[in-house]
Amino acid sequence: MRRAQFGAENGSNGEWKRQGNRFTDRISRASDSSPGEGPDDQGRWPVEPGRYRLVVSLACPWAHRSVIVRRLLGLDDAISLAVVDPIRDEQGWRFTLDPDDRDPVLGIQYLSEAYLRTDPSYDGRVTVPAIVDTVTGLVVTNDYPQITLDLSTEWVDHHQAGAPQLIPDDRAEMDQLIEEIYRDVNNGVYRCGFATEQEAYEAAYDALFARLDALEERLQGRDYLLGDTLREVDVRLFTTLVRFDAVYHGHFKANRNKLTEFPNLWAYARRLYQHEGFGETVDFDQIKRHYYVTHNTINPTGIVPKGPDPEVWTHVD
């Protein structure tokens, strides 16, 4: 097999298989723990404004979801934000954007320090987003799909007035869409980019563009994926779409079409970009530097492309 970017996550057939989430406790209104205490016997930490720190990379689409949802719901003061350097080194995500290369709240230089404090035997890839408890320094969760759902359902008492209801009362249709979009689009671009065999790459490529074609058709005459209301599933699709032309089209060889060549998807993505909470959380410089510099088996020269021009996202036709 050809050398993989993350060898432990490639199967024998060259297919990319993302690792699971190690830390899956939740912050919940149903927790039996008192303020300042750790999790109850069901792994539920108490909802406590000012206690937890959300660690993200602005380059990472999985982390970007939590940044957007936190902003949309008005949880900026309730949950603090730590941003890591977009370039990972051999020890993983670094706090080099902060003074003295150390997170000012957690007091650590690498996110891996919190991982190993929580599980000294952990030997997997350190991932973002992660919510870290500032009282104990332990990782509460790196379960990125659940983090954003819990921001909507468990932190409701701390939402700003007029915050959107990102999760509908009947979740069946949205959950089905979320599953399809995750499999074929969110994770699909990685299955293209990290494949180490031609057959595995082409299978992921075909599934990706079949799903994008279906979404293009779905968005005909709709503002959002579920109609006229912004939902969680829109956030999840957006963080892949906003990176598509800048990274996935070339770097990950997802190059049948650019996003700008899908009329409905492009209009939808631009509409979201210009929505409060979306565009201001996008950092194209960090996105491109992360992918093109960190993935050195895919781009060994480390050259970061100059384009595309980010002004296309705000240009008025």
What does this structure look like?
This protein is an alpha/beta fold and 317 residues long. The chain has two domains: 20-158, Glutaredoxin (3-Layer(aba) Sandwich); 172-313, Up-down Bundle (Glutathione S-transferase Yfyf (Class Pi), Chain A, domain 2), CATH 1.20.1050. Helix content is 35%, strand content 7%. It has nine helices and six strands. It has helices at residues 61-73, 111-118, 144-153, 172-186, 188-193, 198-218, 232-248, 263-273, 284-294; strands at residues 26-28, 44-46, 52-56, 80-83, 130-133, 139-141. A four-stranded mixed β-sheet has the order 4-3-5-6. Strand 5 (130-133) and strand 6 (139-141) form a beta hairpin. Helix 4 (172-186) packs across helix 6 (198-218). It is globular and about 50 Å long. It holds the Pfam family GST_N_2. InterPro entries: Glutathione-S-Trfase_C-like, Glutathione-S-Trfase_C_sf, Glutathione_S-Trfase, Glutathione_S-Trfase_N, GST_Omega-like_C, GST_Omega/GSH, Thioredoxin-like_sf.
List its traits.
alpha/beta, 9 helices, 6 strands, globular
How are the SSEs ordered, and which strands pair?
Layout: E1 26-28, E2 44-46, E3 52-56, H1 61-73, E4 80-83, H2 111-118, E5 130-133, E6 139-141, H3 144-153, H4 172-186, H5 188-193, H6 198-218, H7 232-248, H8 263-273, H9 284-294
Parallel strand pairs: 1-2, 3-4
Antiparallel strand pairs: 3-5, 5-6
Helix pairs in contact: 1-3, 1-7, 4-6, 4-7, 7-8
Site (Lowers pKa of active site Cys): 248, 291
Region (Disordered): 1-46
GO molecular function, one term: glutathione transferase activity
